[in-house]
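Q: Can someone sanity-check these two? First one:
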Amino acid sequence: MCDNGLLMGYPIFGNILAVLAQAFHDQLNCVSTSTRVANKVEKRQNTEEGNYSEHWSLPTATVPLPGDKISIHIVDKPSLEYFNRNHFLPQLPLVLKNSITHWPASSKWSPTYIVQVGGNRTVPVEIGSKYTADDWTQKLMTIEEFVQTYMKSSIGSQVHKEIGYVAQHMLFQQMPELMKDIRVPEYCCLGENQDVEINAWFGPSGTLTPTHYDPKHNFLCQVFGSKFVRLFPPSESQKLYPYEEGTMLFNTSQVDMEDSNAIMKFPDIATATYADILLTEGDMLYIPPKWWHMVKSLSPSFSVSFWFE
């Protein structure tokens, strides 16, 4: 009941519903050993500058594009001044290495831990291959039910026929105890105001966010697991065949990057300039406003996004 109030309303009276919901969860304390999911996280120590595509292969289903590739720089813990001058002001993407390793979440979080902290909490789950699919829907379920149904099968031998995804959810407002494990990147202070929208992206291998753009600056932080990201600069917008203005999908591309006939259906995409990036745990990707991006998880994954103007 408390979670339903949080999901349908706005925190009031010191976020009392979140406090009560967590107290109820702690009292129930019913996380069984069956929910102890192994945290299989891919690790790497690559600090080279340049384009990740030189060091890894595209996901099997992703369509390779013949257009020119952009080289996205990779910098280890850049200074605020460096980031502002070279990326924030000119609005150029950047992979920031080792910029979230100080988060407690970096050493604590796994599917098992998330269940232990909030297994009885109710969250909205997107069900379907992607939000543009005809069969896409949403369902409320507990975090434990979500992990058991979608995450456990993702890292075990069983493959669930559907994809479930806790996507773009204000989980940290709902569960302040998880907020204690992360930090708002200092680079967000470069924005016009101090309002930062923080969202959770928690799901199994195979989750897919179609190519789209956001109107705000975005830091996408990879806590555990790995994700593939394909970026397109704003200059390539028309080559991405956006849905019509005035529709709910106006900021989304009609091009399915996993359709082998994509270039035949949308020929201009063949000349689009783009970048392919691999994010693994500890990476933070700066995505400037209006930069198109497709995101696919390559393993069980938890990402945190910070949007600001």
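And here is the second, same format, sequence then tokens:
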Amino acid sequence: MPIVRGSSMMSLGTWKARSTKYQKFLNLSHVILLIFSTIIVFTAVVLIKFYHISKLDFWSMWFYINPTLMIVLGLYTFAVSVYGFLISNNEQRFLISLTAIFLSLAFLAQIFSVFSAMELRNIIKTEVIDPGAIRDEMKFYGVEGHEHITDKWDEMQRQLRCCGGERFDNGYTDWRSVGLGYKDSKAVPDSCCHEEKEGCGREKSTVRVGDTSAGIYKDGCLAILKIKLKDEVEPLMIVYACVGVLMAIVELITVVLACAYVAQISRRRRREEMFSRAGNAAHDEEFLPSLTSKETNF
């Protein structure tokens, strides 16, 4: 069957135009994922540095899992999106297939991240902190081998201007009840002081409630954080869950587009090979002498 050269070239042009559309849609998806991943990483940093939720793992492990997962997932998605841009003009099927595989993993992780956000919201909304868990955490303050607990409480008390557990006005007295972990049962950590210096917290856990000359913060850190969590973090988790669902949808669409693009490249290459073989066969018929020709030198 003869091949019409004009129609074949038009067909190849159509294939290439479709491939260009796939590239544009994939690049658009990568832009959206870059924006979303940047927002997620920024939000996780705010949750860790401003709301200190990763330090509340003694309340629930979800306070540590959720922001950590947000950072890891955001950086991973950002890296995959950059990789997608770098290979956007490269029609190697293996490289494009890797994009689909990477984003499939990101999709599954994103679904789990949304679940962790809703779980954290439910904990903030309905669960009461166990006072025993707070004391079990605080008693290791200043103990050798538990420096991470000491650093955690020092950072919270300095930044939140608080002292002790979850009570207002007399939260600092919690340090008196957990004196076993601290070198002085009548002291509070120096990070509780208005003007921090070595030894400024001595004999301060026994000061009278309401004494304004004590020079220490009185409100418990958990008392302050619970209000922030209830008023600000809980709505933020709902917003993140919505954004996370949208991000998962975009990731799924990008996976489908990448797979379709790989299939498109495969079909186009098979078609090009078919045209090439047909063209070579027509060339041979035109220039090779026919065995049935009547022209002969004999």
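A (reply): Looked at the second one. The helical segments are 5-49, 62-86, 93-126, 131-138, 147-160, 174-177, 221-287. The chain is about 65% helix and 0% strand.
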